[in-house]
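Pair request: fold both.
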Amino acid sequence: MTLTSIAVGAVVGAVLELSLWPYLQVSGAHPHIVFIYVVVVAMVLGLDAGLTGAFVGGLALDLLAPRPPGSHAVALL
């Protein structure tokens, strides 16, 4: 996988998290799909891929939702 495809996966995860995930619950909690995606990518493909997915996914979460820019990007890194 290239870093571009990892970034696209992170953006798709962010869109799913903001649109579909509020309606799904696991024991009363909402899973953080971008975080789960980033952890799996980092474990399978390495640190560079995980950091790329974390930054792009966090930035997508910040831009798609009314949040301060960069807050999720920094938190996921």
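--- second member of the pair ---
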Amino acid sequence: MFRLRRRTATDCEAVVSWIPDKDALYLFTGPRLRWPLDAAQLSAMEDAGYSGWALVEDESNKPLGHFDLAFDGEVARIGRVCIDPTRRGQGLAHLLVGFAVDQARSLGASELRLNVIVDNDA
């Protein structure tokens, strides 16, 4: 089983390990963060008004996916969506987005938007 929880410092370390190079970082976050990515940069997004979330397996509590939410009134924006590369192709992104929609609603969003970097086909 899977569940959603607030992102932890340990989750930030895991997510950083999923981003192998500068090009992958750009697709993950656009120009907002710099290479080499570190957990401190990702954690600092909380100070900029983004709430970080992790999709985890119940048994291991291991993060399998990540996204953050930012709010402007009742409009939420989902960003920095990523799945552990070793678990891609298993339908986890679909599950993650469902959790993101539910979380945004529970935090008061009446609209959810997704920003995607041009050429991010995956």
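Observation on the second member. The chain has four helices and five strands.
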